[in-house]
Amino acid sequence: MSSRFRALRGFQDILPPESTLWLQLLQEARRLFSLYGFKEILTPLLEPTELFQRSIGESTDIVQKEMYTFTDKAHRSVTLRPEGTAGLVRAYVQHHLWRLPAPQKFFYWGPMFRYERPQKGRLRQFHQLGLEAFGAQEPKMDAELMQALMQYLQGLGLGDLELQLNSIGCPHCRPRYREALKEHFSTVLSELCPDCQRRYELNPLRILDCKVQRCQELRHNAPLSLQHLCSACQEHFQEVKETLRALGVAFAVNPHIVRGLDYYNRTAFEVLSPHLGAQNAVAAGGRYDYLVEDFGGPPTAAIGFAIGLERLAALLSHRAKEASPVVFIASLGREAALEALRLAISLRQQGLYTEQGYDQGSLRSQLRRANRLKARYAIIIGEEELKEGAFQVKDLKEGTSVRLPASAIREFIKRGQG
Ligand code: HAM
User: Fold this and answer.
1) Order of strands, edge to edge, in the sheet holding 68-71?
2) How far is CA 343 from CA 114, 262, 390, in A?
3) How many helices (H) and strands (E) does the chain have?
4) Of the residues 22, 98, 170, 398, which has the maximum number of CB atoms within 10 A of its CB?
5) Which DSSP symbol is given to 322?
6) Which residues, including other chains, have CB under 8 Å from residue 57's CB and lie 6 or more apart?
7) What pLDDT does 74 receive?
8) Which residues pair with 81 in a beta bridge?
9) Which residues fall within 8 angstroms of residue 330, CB to CB, at 6 or more apart?
10) Pair 309, 128: CB distance under 8 Å
11) Could you tell me the residue ranges of all domains in the chain?
């Protein structure tokens, strides 16, 4: 039989047991990041197109090629969010959250949409889990945010990730760097891909992010942003590095990180895994000290990151495992089935994961299911047991069996569990 419908290319279902792993990843993120004061925030999946054009930038691949943009019934151009930061900044400004004591720190997660060419680790609908902190310009915040990120990832058992760091300057020093880049590429302009020739005019930094092989070769000796930082940016970068060292957070400076979004300034970072192939960034982020103001708010420094949940889950897929029931109740006969239902409800009220046989097939087929589910205990209720008011409780792990009155079952199982 073949399914009449399939999910769209680049869109995927998250099935159990992977969905259980996702839940664990989210629970751990909520637990850990709430200790740093990050509060959960939910923003819409659909936003005005201009929001992304303005923040991510007209010259980026995301805005030029990858957005799910359409016209709604009121003839407005709307876009499925390709990332979370822009919507959060909009919400921060729209609800005057800047009036609250700074810094304001937010946690979010949810689906994002980019019309990219699907491949391993790259989807058209993917999920991000992110943190954003508004109102702290000190390098201490950069360092603390990266420390929180690494603690989360390492706490999940991922020991071989690399935090890479760069500074991409600010509106002060960027113009000089832009000019230096333009000068570098001016002699090879005709050899750049058509996209990069456009980028050369619009935003030459984007050339450094191009995936075309020839462009990558041509940027070999291109000037680096680190060589063109103003003294304030240099100081900031220095302090971020020193604080990270003082906190024991390992990192490597990678002067080639430019990031695929335009809103960044100063700190830009990525966390890379050696196990993910070409799409090796598990998380990425940076400062965006000018975006709040650009959206109509007061000048507000900001920094954040997002983790790609599919990539994180791929690194931990060996851990994806369904929970097994503590108890499986097999019953024979109508009366016994009712008793089984009652007992199951009461055991669940005690917090015990309880399954039961729904088919009134043979005891053997019900017990086969109990074994397949890897239940720890099986309780058998038949007519005789009902009459006697005592049920057989099999310990499927130990292979032992006892007869107990219903009232004693709970205690017995709890003891066995403890
Ligand atoms: P980004 O680098 O575009 O940054 O995405 C962050 C992470 O999302 C990536 O490192 C990757 O793990 C995951 N990701 C991105 N695109 C895909 C895709 N097509 N399929 C699967 N995973 C993907 C941002 O989005 C910024 N908003 C991060 C940020 C937050 N900066 C400041 N605050």
Assistant:
1) 46-48, 77-80, 68-71
2) 49, 60, 12
3) 15, 16
4) 22
5) P
6) 63, 203, 261, 262, 263
7) 97
8) none
9) 340, 356, 357, 363, 366, 367, 370, 378, 379, 380, 381
10) yes
11) 18-173+229-319, 327-417
- Report residue 368 as tokens: 């086969």
Among 88, 80, 81, residue whose Cα is nearest residue 107: 88
The predicted-structure confidence for 19-59, as pLDDT tens digits, reads as follows 999 999 999 999 999 999 999 999 999 999 999 999 999 98
Query: Quick one: tokens of 148?
Result: 């929180």
Question: What separation in Å is there between the alpha carbon of 128 and the centre of ligand 1?
Answer: 7
Please give the distance, rounded to the nearest whole angstrom, from the Cα atom of residue 261 to the centre of ligand 1: 10
Q: What is the pLDDT of residue 261?
A: 93
Structure tokens given for 256 = 């080639």
Query: 286 alpha carbon to ligand 1 midpoint, in Å?
Result: 11
Superfamily of domain 18-173+229-319 in CATH is Bira Bifunctional Protein; Domain 2 (3.30.930.10)
Does the domain formed by 327-417 have CATH 3.40.50.800?
A: yes
Q: Strand pairing partners for 77?
A: 71
- On the question of pLDDT at 361 being above 80, the answer is no
Q: Which residue has better confidence, 46 or 211?
A: 46
Count of residues making up the chain: 418
Is the peptide bond preceding residue 17 cis, with omega within 30 degrees of 0? yes
The model's pLDDT over 171-210, given as tens digits with 9 standing for 90+, comes to 999 999 999 999 999 999 999 999 999 999 988 998 988 8
Is 357:383 a contact under the CB 8 Å cutoff? no
> For ligand 1, is residue 131 a contact (CB within 6 Å)?
no
Q: How many whole angstroms separate alpha carbon 109 and alpha carbon 111?
A: 7
Among the listed residues 228, 288, 226, 276, the one whose alpha carbon sits nearest the alpha carbon of residue 254: 226
Q: Which residues, including other chains, have CB under 8 Å from residue 13's CB and lie 6 or more apart?
A: 7
From 22, 107, 128, 279, the mutation candidate for ligand 1 (largest count of ligand atoms within 8 A of CB) is 128
Q: What is the average pLDDT across 95-122?
A: 97
d(CA 87, ligand 1 centre) in Å:
14
* 3-state secondary structure (DSSP) of residue 282: strand
Can the peptide bond before residue 103 be classed as cis, meaning omega within 30 degrees of 0? yes
Q: Which of 207, 213, 27, 13 is nearest to 125 (CA)?
A: 13
- How many angstroms separate the CA atoms of 332 and 359, rounded? 9
How confident is residue 418, by pLDDT bands cut at 50, 70 and 90?
A: low
Structure tokens at 359: 């088919």
